[in-house]
Amino acid sequence: QDYYHADSGKFLIRNMISEEGGQAAVLSPDQRWLAMEVNSYAANWEERYTYDPEVETQWILYDLKHLTSHKWITGKSDFYSSPGVSIEFIGWSADSRHFYFVYYPYGRLSSGLPAGYSRLDRASLQIQLLVPNVIFTKLSPDGQFIFMVTADRIEEQMAYDVKAAIYTLAGKPVSELQFLADQLPFEALNPTNFYNEDGYDPYPDLIPARWNHNGAEIAFAGPNGDLWLQNTNGETIQIVSALPVEPYWQEKVRFSW
Questions:
Q1: Distance (Å, whole) CA 164 – CA 230
Q2: Neighbouring residues of 121: CB distance < 8 A, sequence distance ≥ 6
Q3: 3-state secondary structure of 92
Q4: What is the percent of the chain where pLDDT is above 70?
Q5: Cα separations (Å) of 118 from 77, 104, 184?
Q6: pLDDT of residue 53
Q7: How distant is the alpha carbon of residue 240 from its chain centre?
Q8: Are 118 and 98 in contact (CB under 8 A)?
């Protein structure tokens, strides 16, 4: 995604999206800021055509008023974000003061970034961890709530005491934490590529989950064949218990309302 100045036609910056990864820039509600993933030479991309191993991958806020970049995290040159796997953009607060994102524990950024759901302060570029050890998310259609699966602890390629709940964007739970599993191995958290009825899906959902159309409730299933319904009023209803399922069955399931 290349960005140009509308009046002058001048090239401004390139947001990195490729077969290796990356994700679309996210515009703030006040139309001034772009949360972006770029290379360290993104502002002079048109002058660079060859691969440079010294180039960094950067996550920035781009000021559309002053046409300036503000870096908040840096990664290796061969690191690209992948929603559900490493860094995932979630969205902005309504007042454009904060940007929300997830850094999953199986990412390989190695920059000291805390694993979990975090808030970036636009003015100071400081990062605050709001919900630790997040291993799966699903944003509501209206962008007001986020369903998150968390672990009490993560060690030795395993997530322990796995639970799920609906949260506000500010990281406050609006429903009780629903227990899902005693443990989940990382091969389930970051499953391999496979084919399903809908075609090729490189990153299937860890937990089958689907919001209804107005974002008021979400249906989700656990790894042991249990099925629940949660709503933004804080209610949790168990629909089905202990379906006879095979290991990693959630890789082959999709919900629809």
A1: 10
A2: 97, 98, 127, 128
A3: strand
A4: 72
A5: 23, 11, 22
A6: 53
A7: 28
A8: no
Asked if the model's pLDDT at residue 86 lies above 80, the reply is: no
What is the rounded CA–CA span in Å between residue 124 and residue 101?
A: 16
Residues 104, 116, 101, CA angle at the centre, nearest 5°? 85
What is the C-alpha to C-alpha distance for residues 12 and 69, in angstroms, rounded to an integer? 10
Sorted by sequence, the CB contacts under 8 Å of residue 228 that are 6+ apart come out as 164, 178, 219, 220, 221, 222, 236, 237, 238, 239
Answer for the pair 230, 218: CB distance below 8 angstroms, yes or no.
yes
Q: Which residues contact residue 144 at a Cβ distance below 8 angstroms, ignoring those fewer than 6 apart?
A: 168, 169, 215, 232
Q: Which amino acid is at 240?
A: V
Strand order in the sheet with 209-211: 209-211, 217-221, 227-231, 236-240
pLDDT digits (tens, 9 = 90+) for 188-210: 655 443 334 444 444 456 678 89
Instruction: Specify the pLDDT at position 97.
Output: 97
> DSSP for 135-194?
EEEEE-TTSSEEEEEEEEEEETTEEEEEEEEEEETTS-BSSPPEEEEEEEEHHHHSPPPE
SS3 content of the chain, % helix, strand, coil (to 5): 5, 45, 50
- 10-36 burial, b at 16+ Cβ within 10 Å, e below that, comes to eebbbbbeeeebbbebbebeeeebbbb
Distance (Å, whole) CA 105 – CA 215: 27
